[in-house]
Design brief:
- It contains 18 helices and 14 strands.
- The chain is globular, with a radius of gyration of 23 Å.
- The strands form three sheets. Strands 3-2-4-5-1-8 form a six-stranded parallel β-sheet, with helices on both faces. The chain has a six-stranded parallel β-sheet with strand order 9-14-13-10-12-11, with helices on both faces.
- By secondary structure, it is of the alpha/beta class.
């Protein structure tokens, strides 16, 4: 039996690959190790990630640390510019056209949407890069379909099919209780796809063990709230018969998210947490939910911090670490660097379809060597929309868990 090829040999042969690692610094270090092994063959390094990540002090420190000795070859671009800046695209095109380039995309989820301009541009540029590398923590966030754009960038020949053909090959039609026809993957399709990808997986550390105690708390609308909700829905649909589905979701959820029973149950949870002198992070979807809690008078000034919008992130995080025990945060706000060692409670006050936001909200919570378990509270309002979100999140979580298991080293050895 031949000895397995090292990741350096596979990069030499395949010219592209994927690194799955949970720790950001570890991902960056391994990427630069691979770059260094090819440094004599390349003229420049095109490094692409999200703008807020690129501009963080910690991230800059990692890039400086591991690019030492060939820093002049490193060109860092925010992915947002691929959508909005023609000048930036011209810069990348010029570099790729005239130089031998090694491209690193840090976080595969920024190119999961094959319809977006930035993803199309990267896929178009893909063959021009001498080497291509994707760094990421999780393989997907919304389902197997997330893989399509990633693999088109890594190597279109892995699949050699259109998006429509991919959907028919790997996703079966599933009709939900809400009469929505969706395409979803099954384990046998997931195994089949992972086997095609496996040679390109250079490193993986995708164990998916969330050591949390989850509680689902269901909340009722009062008769008056239910009546008002139905009336507002009808009025909205009469005026906007062809409104996009996402717009409808946001609008409808906004109508009932601060309902009386849910607010009362939040107060009960927080009261119990305060008695235990523990910390809690409360996630909301809408900024005016935080405005409501600031104005309602139940929370005392100085006992909570807010992480949202244009609020100074570092100040808010430091305040929560040192002074307050309650943190309100909107989804999608980067909380990297937050010391959560003493935080044993997370409350999702309002819900989201986007699995990656909920995963991001929990990833800074340490899961080992703790004296107390971490409690996660999901507040659900008894509406069709909240139930749709609950089912969707469960399905996405199952797919992510299955894929992480399939691409783990232990699973690979068993096959």
């Amino acid at each position: 039996m031949e000895a397995p090829m090292s990741i350096y040999e596979r990069l030499d042969k395949l010219k592209s690959g994927i690194i799955y690692r949970k720790n950001q610094e570890d991902r960056i270090q391994l990427a630069f190790d691979l770059i260094y092994s090819k440094i004599e063959e390349i003229d420049c390094i095109i490094w692409i990630s999200r703008e807020h990540i690129i501009h963080s002090k910690t991230y800059k420190k990692y890039l400086d640390k591991y690019s030492e000795g060939f820093r002049s070859k490193l060109f860092v671009f925010p992915i947002e510019c691929a959508s909005f800046s023609t000048l930036t695209l011209l810069q990348i095109h010029d570099l790729v056209a005239n130089k031998r380039a090694f491209c690193v995309v840090d976080n595969c989820l920024i190119i999961k949407n094959s319809k977006s301009k930035r993803t199309k541009e990267l896929i178009k540029l893909g063959p021009l890069f001498k080497y291509r590398l994707i760094l990421t923590e999780l393989p997907v966030s919304g389902g197997l379909v997330d893989f399509y754009a990633q693999l088109q960038f890594i190597n279109p020949q892995i699949l050699n099919m259109t998006k429509i053909q991919f959907n028919h090959a790997y996703l079966k039609k599933l009709k939900s209780a809400f009469q929505q026809a969706k395409r979803w993957s099954y384990p046998e399709q997931e195994v089949s796809l992972i086997e095609k990808i496996r040679p390109y997986i250079f490193e993986n550390e995708t164990e998916y063990h969330e050591c949390f105690k989850n509680y689902d708390i269901y909340c009722d609308l009062t008769p008056k709230e239910a009546r008002c909700y139905q009336e507002e829905k009808n009025l909205y649909l009469e005026r906007r018969a062809k409104a996009p589905f996402i717009e409808i979701i946001h609008r409808f959820q906004h109508m009932y998210t601060i309902c009386q029973n849910k607010v009362e149950k939040l107060f009960e949870l927080v009261s119990d947490i305060k008695l235990k002198k523990e910390k809690v992070v409360i996630y909301v979807k809408f900024r005016d939910e935080i405005n409501f809690f600031e104005e309602c008078g139940w929370f005392k000034p100085g006992e909570y911090s807010v992480l949202a919008g244009k609020i100074n992130k570092n100040r808010a995080l430091k305040e929560f670490e040192k002074k307050t025990n309650i943190l309100f945060s909107t989804y999608g706000v980067d909380n990297s660097g937050l010391d959560m060692q003493n935080c044993n409670n997370v409350i999702f006050f309002s819900q989201t379809f986007d699995y990656k936001f909920k995963h991001q909200a929990l990833k800074n919570l340490p899961q080992h060597d703790r004296q107390h378990e971490i409690k996660i509270y999901n507040l659900w309002v008894k509406t069709g929309l909240d139930e749709m979100m609950r089912q969707s999140l469960l399905m996405k979580e199952n797919v992510v868990s299955n894929l992480c298991s399939m691409i783990s080293k232990e699973e690979a050895l068993r096959l």
